[in-house]
Structures are given as structure tokens and as C-alpha cells.
Amino acid sequence: MKILIAEDERDVLDAYRIALSAQGHEVVATENGKDCVNVYKRHYEEFAKTTGGEARMHMRSPFDAVLLDYRMPKKDGMEVAQEILALYPRQRIIFASAYVRETLLDSVNQLNRVVELLQKPFRIKALIDTLEDKEIYDGLKALNVKVDQLKSTNPSHEQVSALLEGLKKLQKGRTF
């Protein structure tokens, strides 16, 4: 897999890169949100040139997954996700966050979707297992059907808890 990571803590970023590379994944690492968006756009444009232009870009992304720290300098993870999803709406986004409830609510309100979450701190094995589990991303489609309903009402504690529980089941309880 080709994975783009944005993480502002250098030691954490290095740990991700080393572990994922050891598993045979191609890792592109950035230390802030602004750089992440710029790298994504550059790879997106290069990918478009090599795959026959814009028409084919709607079929595939230059990255299999984008792992974003929720809070980072220059642009936070939510802003980065918005810009990436504007280019490629089906991009797999995974947030690494100590604030899973807040991140989930922001993803519903700002991205109009539920995204994958890894609650910090988490073991590297949980990261690898989540990235390599393609069923999670497919399972999100069912949760995302409920997003429009939630946005039209102010989500209650129970509704948010139900979404978190659904996401936890999809991710096999790896980190929260």
C-alpha cells in the first residue's frame, strides 16, 4: 500500500514510517497539515498524468490511505481531509486522535461522513492491522448512510455513542 501520513510529533512519525515500511508499505511522511495537502496535490497531479488524465482520476487515488493527526500546525487534520476529499471524494482517511468523540462529530459535520479513527496512544500493530483491513473502509458506507439524518438534527449523546460503537465494531476494537 502507498500511505500518506501527516503527524507533527517527529518521534511518532518516525515510528509509523519505520513500522509500515518494514511491512512493505510505501510511506510518504509530512510533519504538518499544509505540507500534507501540498504533497497530496503533487502526487494527485503526477498520478493524473501517468494514468490518462482527470477522467481516470475518479477511479483511483494516488494513495491507498491517508493517516492524519487530528491536531497539528499550519492546518489541522480536518482541514487537510476537506481539501483531499475535494480532490478525491473516495479517499480513505484515517484520523489518529486522542479526541475520538470530537473527531467523529467534526467528521460528520465538516466532512459529511464517518471516518476511521485510531485513539491515541495506540500500538503500532493496531495501526498496521487497521490499514491492512480493507473491510473497515467498505463497512463505513453503512454508517455513512446515517450521516445526513444526524446532521439535520443536533446529534444526541446516544446517537454519537451508537456511531462510535459501530466504528469500534468495524475496527474490531483495536484502539477504543
UniProtKB/TrEMBL annotation:
The keyword Phosphoprotein applies. The keyword Phosphoprotein applies. Residues 2-135 form the Response regulatory domain. Gene3D superfamilies: 3.40.50.2300. One of its GO terms (biological process) is phosphorelay signal transduction system. PANTHER family: STRESS RESPONSE REGULATOR PROTEIN 1 (PTHR44591), TWO-COMPONENT RESPONSE REGULATOR (PTHR44591:SF21). This is Putative CheY-like signal transduction response regulator, receiver domain. It comes from Nitrososphaera viennensis EN76. The lineage of its organism: Archaea, Nitrososphaerota, Nitrososphaeria, Nitrososphaerales, Nitrososphaeraceae.
